[in-house]
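## retry 2 of 3
previous attempt timed out at serialization; input unchanged, resubmitting
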Amino acid sequence: MIPTVKSYFSGAGLMDLGLQNAGLDIKQSLEIDIHACNTLRKNFNHEILEEDIANRTVLSQEKTDIMVGTYPCTKYSAIADISGTRDGDDLFLHMFRHIALEKPEMYVIENVVGMKQFPIVMEAMSKLPDYYVHMECPLNANLWLPQNRARLILIGTRRPFNFRPPVVEKKVTLKEIVDPCPEYNITYGVMNRINGKHRDNPIVSDPDKGDNAPCCVAHFHKDKSTRLVVDKSHKNGVRPYTMREYARLMGVPDSFEFAGTKNQAIKQIGNGVAVPMAEWIGREAMRYFNR
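## retry succeeded, writing output
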């Protein structure tokens, strides 16, 4: 059996890509951002709903075996403490509404580890009647990729199931991801941080030392000085990651096309799901539906 999937808050489709790589049949993606929707259209053939989930009724959609929700994590992240916005939001309620009304055989929720600190959110997503819930937390992308990216994964199933932990045969290294001598025009703001003129120093990763990169974040498109990679071919010895390197840190193949500018692509990448992590979820889903 090939399970069918609907994804919500799909972004550029990195979760969709991983699930598809594992053999699942993606039927629909729902996303509100125009650039992310255009990226989805460039890379997939299934239906793309460019709209707010709050305006979409559940029963107007085709039923699928699996529903996937990767709703925005901004309100659950530690960075929200700085701006005073770390109070949760109501997007999870729309995901809850869709699961509760359709009652798929399986649902998957991906978010930051900080979501565990919100008991209302966790109760809604993990205590749905008639579901057995498996939680992986933290599940770190650094199992597969040279990026420290811890995530919370909730998988609800109508039948009990023994989910296997990820088995990784070979981890990609930062040295394999970084391009030799890319053209890179370093801005005045980046140079200021390199030269210690900011309160906080950049996070610098060295491929020759086997370092991992820090977590890929969407706001990297606004301030590329925060994450640097050692590059001895560059006159400064360090530089920000290119857009394509940033995508590789998420497990995205070079053949994947992003819509919009490079900065818009970087934002989409930072908001995505590490592709190998999604592939693991997809392979376990295939086991569930074909046991």
